[in-house]
Design brief:
The chain is of the alpha+beta class. It has one domain. The protein has a 4-stranded antiparallel β-sheet with strand order 1-2-4-3, with no helix packed on it. The protein is rod-shaped. This is Beta-defensin.
């Protein structure tokens, strides 16, 4: 009986624990992180599905597309 009660308590407690890595949501092909604010070493790329900013480090930022020159 005590084992059953202990099992019920453990299952109830596990129901209130957030899933792992919930604060480190990834974006931009796994290179960026979804956050409320970007740090100084990061730039904003787009919005994540939950409405937060997708912050990408300047090292991973894609280069700007240049216009082709016409002769």
């Amino acid at each position: 009986m005590t084992q059953l009660l202990l099992l019920i308590v453990v299952l109830l407690l596990l129901g209130h624990v957030p899933p792992g890595r919930s604060e480190f949501k990834r974006c931009w092909k796994g290179q960026g992180a979804c956050r409320t604010y970007c740090t100084r070493q990061e730039s904003y790329m787009h919005l994540c599905p939950d409405g937060s900013l997708c912050c990408l480090s300047y090292a991973f930022k894609p280069p700007l597309a240049t216009k082709p020159e016409y002769d």
